[in-house]
Amino acid sequence: MRKWSEGYYLITLDGQLEEPKDKGSKTSVSKTNIKDAAKDAKGKAREKEITTVRVSITAYDIRKNSMLYQNQILLNTDNLREEGHRVSHEIFRQITGKESIFTSKIYFVSDRESDWVKKNIIKELYFMDFDGFNIVKVTNHRGIVISPSISTGQQLAVYSLIRDNKGRKRNNDLYLLNMKTKVSEMISSREGINSGAIFTADNDKIILTLTDGDNTDIFWMDIKTKETKKITDHPSVDVDPDISPDGNTLAFVSGRPGKAMIYLADPRGVEKDVRRLSYVGDLHATPRFSPLGQELVLVSWIDNAFDIYRIDTQGNNIVRLTKDFGSNEAPSFSPDGEFIVFSSQRTISRHFSVKNLYIMDREGEILGAITSNLGNCTTPRWVR
Fold first, then answer.
1. Are 47 and 39 in contact (CB under 8 A)?
2. What's residue 29's pLDDT?
3. Which of 263, 270, 261 has its CA nearest to residue 242?
4. Inside any domain, residue 279
5. 346 and 321 in one domain?
């Protein structure tokens, strides 16, 4: 294993550590992967029973011959990956003045525990680091979890659950989970649909789809009192809401034109300022706002597959982001708005296909899959 001495090293864009020829040179001649250096540092720390090390970090702009960032920090050697994300986030924030994605999480649903022989389908909620590592199981209902949403600060999760209950017929019920105590409670159990819930910015309310008599509309719900108030009131089916960061615009899917399309409305009234947003394709689903609320991503059925589009809130500047890349659904912006996570189904054989999560940039360049061998992974939610 390579031994590392105290001194200055350069981190290259491809994740390599460069060592200068001598103390006075800025030209590198040898490269060693950062992972090897991390393992070496971790091993030495354990030999000396040290769990933290003090590291001096300097970010230097070679072209401008100027220092961008310098700091001394303590690293926990037992969790170098998490520490690396934390340090990367701090450097990025100091240089750009913006928050990064390095410490963000992606929540998703997986059916990895299903027994396909016995046709026992189980879907639970999980989360992981933005790069697909450190997967943590959140729920253990042994039922079917769908349509999760995570509150600001990741303190609460809301999702729908379908499972067999003794003495009660199967229903689509809504649950609220305290992420700290791991205690969940049923907060809506109307006969029919209790689904598609999303948190408002203050985490005091949710917006969700409820069956109301013979119709399906979108409602406010106060989390504490469970009181509800209508936002849409139309004979057509209205589902799958999302709200802009400032709380002034609601996006939802409606069958008003005779097929599922995206509509916008002012959620502060009933049927207030409702207008159709999308027209391309045969049907649309899962509208999701960008962090600034100026545009959305959505799914459209076109060319015999689901593909992802980006569009601004005025219905202009529509961009097709995926094409000839399987069937793509459930897009979600990264917290900085520069990336999009989505679920993509690939056909493995005539009788088998699988859904994994992928990341692309906001222009549609696919960066790669972040899940593998986790069953079918769906409905990702990217949160800070």
1. no
2. 35
3. 263
4. yes
5. yes
Mean of the per-residue pLDDT values of the chain: 86
Dist. CA 362–CA 302, nearest whole Å: 20
Range of the domain at 83: 10-96
Q: How far apart are CA 148 and CA 6, in angstroms?
A: 47
pLDDT < 70 regions, the chain: 1-50, 165-168, 348-349
> What pLDDT is attached to residue 27?
36
The number of beta carbons lying within 10 Å of the beta carbon of residue 274 is: 19
pLDDT of residue 111: 97
Question: How many independent structural domains does the chain possess?
Answer: 2
Please, which residues have CB within 8 angstroms of residue 256's CB and are 6 or more apart in sequence?
234, 236, 263, 276
Kindly state whether residues 145 and 20 are assigned to the same domain.
no
Looking at the domain assignment, is residue 3 inside a domain? no
